[in-house]
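Chain A, query sequence.
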Amino acid sequence: MKAYKEDSSIKARKEEIDIKLKRVRKALDEKSWDALLINKCEAFAWITAGGDSIMTRYVEGGVISILITKTAQYAITNIIEYQRALDEEVLDKLGFEVLSSEWFENKTMEHITRIIGKDGKLASDVPMPGAADAGTVISKMQYSLLDNEIGRYLHLGETFSHAIEEVMTDVKPGDIERDIVGRINNAIWKHGIDAVLYLVAADERIWNYRHCIPTDKKIKDIVMVCCNGRYKGLITKITRFLCFGEPSKEFTKQYEQTLEIENRMIAATQIGKSNLIPFETAIKAYEEFGYKDMWKVHHQGGPQGYTNGYYLMNHDTHELVVKNQCYCYNPSITGTKTEDAFIVTDEGPLMITKPVLFPEHKVIINGIEVSRPGIFVR
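Chain A, predicted structure.
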């Protein structure tokens, strides 16, 4: 398997950005647009090779916008963010002309009109007067990851997996669900990772709800942790189980069946083939294991990247898999769930998250040995 490593140098980031600018300008030509405005935090991270425009966490729009024309690229912000855009986001060194205005004057449209003219055709990833909707176009440009993006993803996966599992292996009976969230947050923030989703369930809550928002419930026998982490814009997911004392044979069998469904979905996800295939593979596997229609109880996942998920695969929504695209599936049988992300490469699946401190289930998928997580027993 090819080796990938993150290169955060200005040179490497600019090379990545230049490739993405070509993708954008190809879209401008195809759509007869004069400029594309990027305001969403996720798209900003993508076009700047890992930059950060987030001020208020968990909101869609950022504090710096990017405007791309057929011949130039700009960063538009206000005086509050201007210096940081230069000093820390180094946007000028990455090839963007940084434009600024007073914080009490929204001159974005004034800048755009000056650059493309009052009759220029603008597209935007957020609603703008007279602008075409470019959200889907931008998302599709993000599907095929570049080598440096894969390097960032693997760094995220390894660091994230270790942090989650390290926290979980230290959990004790009597600990509170919300306390686990606090420990995880502390463990990942120091590595530049922020969580965009936390689900923690203890004991009967695992069987009662698919999406278990953390509560003040104390843990007795078992806990499930699901977390989505973001690093330089890229997001990945993970689910792990911890049991105090050996789980029953029935529970272990069900967990392994859930893992097998995910493994089959991963194997069925191949470049150039419809991702309806892994979706239908899951449906057949559920029925084979005696859980017909269980797939209807919860979605099965789909492609991800600079968002938790670009869409959820189903019979009405599906696309062709592209090279170096990231996927994450989350099959669940009431009481068990498995979830690890991977990248679809020419050489086979490249796992992003994987067991580090948890038990390993080593399996061969499309000729590649991959490590899948078992249940951690204390």
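The chain has a mean pLDDT of 97. The chain is about 35% helix and 25% strand.
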